[in-house]
Amino acid sequence: SDLLAAMPLKFIPSKISNPGADPACTFPFLNGPLSLFDTPALDPSLRPIAPGAAPRLPPSHPCPANSPIPSMVTHHSVTGVIIFSLIILAIFSLLSALLVYIELFLSTFIAQSLSVTIREQLFDHLQRLSLDWHDRQKKGDLVQRVTGNIADIEKLVTDGLIDLMAGVLTLIGVATIMLSISPQYTLLSLAIAPVLFLVVSRYTGGIKSAAKKKARAAGKIADVATEDINALTVIRAFTLETRENRRFGSHVESHRDAGMRAGSLQAQFTPLVSVLVSLGTLIVVGVGGYVAAGNGFDLGFMSIAPFSIDVGTLILFLTYLKMLYQPMRDLSKLTTLATNAASGVERIQEVLDQAPEVIESSKPYTGMPKLKGEITFENVVFGYIKNRPVIKNVSIHIPAGRKVALVGFSGGGKTTLVKLIPRFYEAQSGSVKIDGLDNRQYPLQVLRQNVSLVLQEAVLFEGTIRENLEIGKPGAPMEEISDAARKANIHDFIMSLPDGYNTYVHEQGNNFSGGQRQRLAIARAILRDSPILILDEPTANLDVEAEAEVMHALNKLIVGRTVLTISHRLSTLGQVDEILVMRAGQIVERGSYRDLKRKKGLFASLLEEQNRYSADMGENEFEL
Ligand code: ADP
Ligand code: MG
Asked: Where is it mostly found (predicted)?
């Protein structure tokens, strides 16, 4: 009978013969739906008499009230029940294993897909944001947004999404059932809701602000690390290690403090939610128990009437109320994960909200992909900061094929002026025209294909020499590449390396000297073969010998192109067609080397000063 009592109703044979007084009677409380195991073998009276004949059914009538309850179930049916239970158990555990697999697989799949989408979108957006915007950003912090913040979002989806969904669904489901059992008691159990709401909003607010602080600190950590790793030489030279360790340490500590704050709030929050929820249960048990026991109350404004409940309903209600615990506790545990992800989303959104400042013209471009290279500045005004122009109303016309030098004091705006040509920045008023057309009318791709830059520092990427040169002309055949390298005076050097063109270039090309890097950049520009060439002090960082080699390479590069060269070695400018002298954002003098030298203006005095300086240093003046 213990076994019977423990068994769910439907697994119990519906008719159990009573070996005592009346073999044919049945117990009404056992008359559930016909069981699978209710075999005729149980009751000899059910066996057919002869093959084909109809079974003789026993008269079914309830057992007398005082007849003994059968004390055992036949051997047959116990085995059946056990086997059936085992099969059901096995099926359930297999099913639940399958569900766990699907859950884990799906949450990882969703998290990974989401993070790929966000990461790619963010990176693409970063590439489109203006250089002006990038100038103002901290590199490490940006990297942290692309890596760390997205990882936080990924973590929430992987570890929390299913719990979150299951929790919310369970809450809704259980609450609906509770409402259907007893709306009054459901309301009663919600008595703690205002306090719960207060606690939830206070704590989630606190955890959220800690999570934000933590994300910001993570950005700063990445910042200092990036900056210092890029400046290791200087840090060692100035023995700044201790200072930098302290700077790094302070951010690491504030990251820890924010993490601890979030953690300790979370540690208080979860049990507090449990306590409040059980308080709700206490109220229900108290009121329900009191009323169900037959007591009444009348508080004047409220009487027992709406709360009358019988014990069965109360117990059923309490069972469901108890089911609210787990999802609430689970959900409260997700707060930290969710707030981390939310502050990650916020930091990513900040970047995505930045409008790309260089916007492509909507008009379709119908011109030739290769331009002639005529450059015109018309009353161009530009400044990095509003109302503080760096370029003040500059107008110049440079016919295609002309070689022009831009000279002047440092900070005069030379670099800024040439950066307007490929539209790295946009004129605030006036316009920069190429071949007579405003450079904003060209698709960026076309415009930038037609402008080559050789800057003070050549930028090389990780990869082979060949790959680095190929950037100039993707898919160029080897002969063309080596031809360009020959012109750039670097072919022989490359061939002297054990791996030749397959030599590996380290990050930023730091396994090559400045002169070698510069000549590789020149070879790249030769391959690119664009009609406009901008040289921004390409030899400024080189020693005399390397400078001579680079100049030699440059002389081959400039043939047949419009050239704008910025140079502070005035004595090397004899061959250019025209020199523009810039001061404080304006062109103050222009003319040929000879004209300007004769004119005794700013250029002549700069030249004189430089020659005096190099004479002092024991260098010879270049003879032109
Ligand atoms: P030059 O090349 O003639 O030495 P630049 O064009 O580099 O001069 O700089 C002109 C002025 O613009 C300087 O006063 C400099 O401080 C400022 N400047 C240059 N680049 C930026 C930038 N990215 N953001 C803000 N100001 C800048
Ligand atoms: Mg400059």
From this structure: membrane
Its CATH architecture, for the domain 455-529, is 3-Layer(aba) Sandwich (3.40)
Could you confirm whether domain 104-352 is CATH 1.20.1560.10?
Answer: yes
Q: Which of 138, 409, 414, 415 to mutate to test the pocket of ligand 1 (most atoms within 8 A of CB)?
A: 415
* Atom 18 in ligand 1: residue holding the nearest Cα: 384
Question: How many other CB atoms sit within 10 Å of the CB of residue 193?
Answer: 13
What pairing do the DSSP bridges indicate for beta strands 375-382 and 437-438? unpaired
For the question of whether the overall pTM of this predicted structure is more than 0.90, the answer is no
Smallest CA-to-CA distance from 339 within 147, 103, 146, 149 is with 149
User: What are the domain boundaries of the chain?
Assistant: 2-73, 104-352, 455-529
Amino acid 457 reads E
> Any idea how long the chain is?
624
ipTM of the prediction greater than 0.90, yes or no: yes
pLDDT in tens, 135-167: 889 999 999 999 989 999 999 999 888 888 888
- Nearest-ligand number for the alpha carbon of 536: 2
pLDDT bin (cut points 50, 70, 90) of residue 293 is confident
Pocket test for ligand 1, best of 388, 416, 566 (most atoms within 8 A of CB): 416
- Please check whether the two domains, 104-352 and 455-529, share a CATH topology: no
pLDDT, one tens digit per residue, over 462-519 is 899 999 999 999 999 999 999 999 999 899 999 999 999 999 998 888 889 888 999 9
Ligand that lies nearest to the alpha carbon of residue 581, given by its number in the listed order: 1
Pocket test for ligand 1, best of 134, 135, 138, 390 (most atoms within 8 A of CB): 390
The Cα angle at residue 552 between residues 549 and 554, in degrees rounded to 5: 110
> Among 79, 53, 60, 77, which residue's Cα sits nearest to residue 22?
60
Q: From the CA of 579, how far away is ligand 1's center (Å)? A: 20
Q: Which atom of ligand 1 is nearest to the CA of 417?
A: 6
**Angle made by CA atoms 565, 571, 572, in degrees to the nearest 5:** 45
* Ligand 1: nearest atom to the Cα of 416: 6
